TrEMBL record:
One of its GO terms (molecular function) is 8-oxo-GDP phosphatase activity. It comes from the Bacteria. It holds the Pfam family NUDIX_4. Residues 7-138 form the Nudix hydrolase domain. Belongs to the Nudix hydrolase family. Keywords: DNA damage, DNA repair, DNA replication, Hydrolase, Magnesium, Metal-binding, Mutator protein. Gene3D superfamilies: Nucleoside Triphosphate Pyrophosphohydrolase. The lineage of its organism: Bacteria, Pseudomonadati, Myxococcota, Myxococcia, Myxococcales. InterPro entries: MutT-like (IPR047127), MutY_C (IPR029119), Nudix_hydrolase (IPR020476), NUDIX_hydrolase-like_dom_sf (IPR015797), NUDIX_hydrolase_dom (IPR000086). This is 8-oxo-dGTP diphosphatase. It catalyses: 8-oxo-GTP + H2O = 8-oxo-GMP + diphosphate + H(+); 8-oxo-dGTP + H2O = 8-oxo-dGMP + diphosphate + H(+). Its EC number is 3.6.1.55. One of its GO terms (biological process) is DNA repair.
Amino acid sequence: MTRAVPRTVRVVAALIPRPGLEDGGPRYLVQQRLPGGSRALLWEFPGGKVEAGETDEAALARECREELDVELSVGRRLWEGRHTYPDLTVELVLLAATIVSGEPKPLGAHQLAFHTPTEMQALPFCEADVPLLDDLLAGRLGALD
């Protein structure tokens, strides 16, 4: 009996800093997934799936408009990785982004929060995000602009 190969999806995520100076270092927006779905209540960086014919940048802007009710200025690519779950393989791309209008609302998430990379270590993150978080904590992503 052969095992089915999981489908592959391309996912974009945003590294969105909270505006202003922060004690303890910069804080970035993360979201907790909704209960009841796949990877329920795990944390991740905001974003979503890239649709056919979309660029990564356009997909990220659309997903954040739909799920956070914000308009973004999308910057450079910061990180890429791949993770295989039992049900799918995720090709994850992290892009720098800033909010140009709106206040983030959890329209597609259980909750939103701004955390430092150190604080994020205490949160249960989706497995695909863990190597990204490790690189963020180690300062391997470089400048956001």
